[in-house]
Structure formats: structure tokens, C-alpha cells
Amino acid sequence: MKNTIAVVALFSVFAVSSCNKKKSDHLTANVTEVAQPEKFTLDSVVVKDSVMLTDSLKIKFSAQMLVFPTIKDKKLLDSIYYTSKDVRDFSKDGIKKLNEKEKNDYFNTVKKDSKDWLPDIRYYQEWYSDTSMKMVSNVNDYMHIKYFWGSYEGGAHDNYGFAERVFDLKNKKKLQLDDITSMPKNKLEELLKNNINKQPGGTTDENGTVDNSDMLIVDKIPATGNFYFDQKNLYFHYSPYEITAFAAGDLLIPISWEELKGTLKPEFMERMKIK
After folding, report:
1. pLDDT band at 117, cuts 50/70/90?
2. CATH code assigned to 43-174
């Protein structure tokens, strides 16, 4: 009798186990796996080299470019690498090969162009070409990249410039001003001129007060695509000679969200949590 009860109990366990397994298999078969978005990653490539053309002239090349392994959209990548139209391979190896090519092109161009007057250089000089990309922030799927270029090939001083670009990773495009505000360009220009001295930098008067107005070489300060933003302001960045004399350096002019109140786009306000 005891043996019979044991056998019955054993069969009951198998039956329940089999039933549970069938249920589990049925549930598994009906579960659809949801692909998780790939985590944003960032890498970079740096190429540096120098050559002594003569005892008096050294030329240097430096390039630092970012690499975005998780960004696959070609149109967006073309916009990110807008300074290098030859980019076809967006991998780390592809970007490195491009930088190596640009380095060789720079060295060969300087050698060719300076061949006739190179012997006339009588004191030591260092000429250079320097370019870089820096990711400043990635907030609410708005990625801000600062581009820099600098060069010197003789003369009184070197030259340099900046470009600020914001990329909307959610909508896979470079952000435009009209994605942020509907304020007409002429109104933005008025605000820029009024705010020219609000940011430290540039020139100061005898009392130490910021005074960039005297260095202006334009009648209107254009609202260009060279902008970025944070939680408080929209900023426009101007390189030397763009709106002022070289001595003023590069200028940053802010326009507060309060000054743009009533013209900000709802989607932008929501994503940036601007009240």
C-alpha cells in the first residue's frame, strides 16, 4: 500500500512538472524580445608629426578627430564630419587613414610652395596646422561638438577659429536655429548687438569694463549657425575677423531664454526642461 502511494505521488510530481514546463514553453514562445538601444560610446584618433625643412624652419601637423561607433546614420555622420568631405569610412581606422592623408598633403604642399623662397628664412620658425574636435556635452540627446583650427605660416601672428555645432541625436540631424526659436533674424541681431559685452573676454576699457563694441568691423552681428546652448542661454561664437578685429579675439555672445520667451519651440522647451 505504501509502495502504491509512493508511485502515485511520483507520477503526480512528473505530471505537474510537465504541465508547468508546457506553460513555460508556451509563454516563452509568445514573448517577443525588445531590442535595447545601443549605449552611446565615443572614441578619438590623434595624429601628430613634424618635419625639419631646413635648420630654420620646422613644420608641425596635429589633428584630433572624434569617432562615434554607435552612430550609424550616414547623413548625420556626414554632417558631423563636415570639415572633411573625404570621409567615406567612419570607423576608427578610416578616420586615422584620413588624418594621415591630410598630414602628408599638408607637408607636401608646404614643401612645394616654399621651395623658391625657403633659403630666405634666416631665423628659426615653427609653422603648424592644428585641427581638433571636442565633445562638450550630450544632454537630452543634444550633442554639442566644438571644432577648432589654428595655423601659422609666417607673418605677424597665427590664425585660428572655432565652430560650434549641436546635433539632434533623436531626430538624426544638425540642429538649426529654427528648431529652437521662431524669432526673426533681425530681432536676434538686435539682441546680439545689445548683448555684445555681457560675456567676459574680448577687450576692456581703461576701467576694466568689457567693451567689444569699439572693435566691431560689421554694422550688424549675424545670427549664424555657430551656436550652442545650456540651461540658461543660447550662445553665438564668433572667430577673429568674423565681426571684430583680430585683437578682440574670439567672442561669445549670450541670449537668455527669458529674452527668447514666447518664441521657443515647444519640443525644444520640453526636452531641455525650460519653463
Report:
1. confident
2. 3.30.565.40
Q: Which fold has domain 177-272?
A: Actin; Chain A, domain 4 (3.90.640)
pLDDT tens for each residue of 196-207? 988 765 555 555
User: CA 44, 226, 110: angle at the middle one, nearest 5?
Assistant: 60
CA 246 remoteness from chain centre: 25
Query: In terms of Cα–Cα distance, which of 81, 86, 79 is closest to 102?
Result: 86
- What is the domain partition of the chain in residue ranges? 43-174, 177-272
Mean pLDDT of the chain: 86
Amino acid at 152: Y
- Give pTM, 2 decimals: 0.81
Query: Radius of gyration (Cα) for the chain, nearest Å?
Result: 30
What pLDDT digit, counting tens, does each position of 11-62 carry? 444 444 554 555 455 545 555 555 556 789 999 999 999 999 988 999 999 9
At 137, give phi and psi (nearest 5°): -160, 160
The per-residue b/e assignment along 35-45, b for 16 or more CB within 10 angstroms, e otherwise, is: eeeeeeeeeeb
Report the SS3 class of residue 255: strand
- Which grid cell sits at 142? 543634444
The grid coordinates listed for 217 are 568691423
